[in-house]
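Let us practice reading a record.
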Amino acid sequence: MGLVSAILSLPLAPVRGVIWLGELIQDQVERQLQDPATVRRELEEIDAAAAAGRLSEEERKQAQQAVLDRLRPAGGTTAPNRKE
């Protein structure tokens, strides 16, 4: 039965490969977006733009909030407290 199912599912191999690649890319993007160095750099760029007058105070707050919102898990819940 394993041979028959392997032969029948062979045409789906490229689709599985594309799905796997997509998941791999998504994981990497999520890691980069939540990297503390990336977040800090983006917040510094926002502050620099506000200091240069390219952003109003309201725009600065909105941009900072958008960066910080990426750090929160989906669903708006906070991460559980870990005991160290």
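A brief commentary: The radius of gyration is 21 Å.
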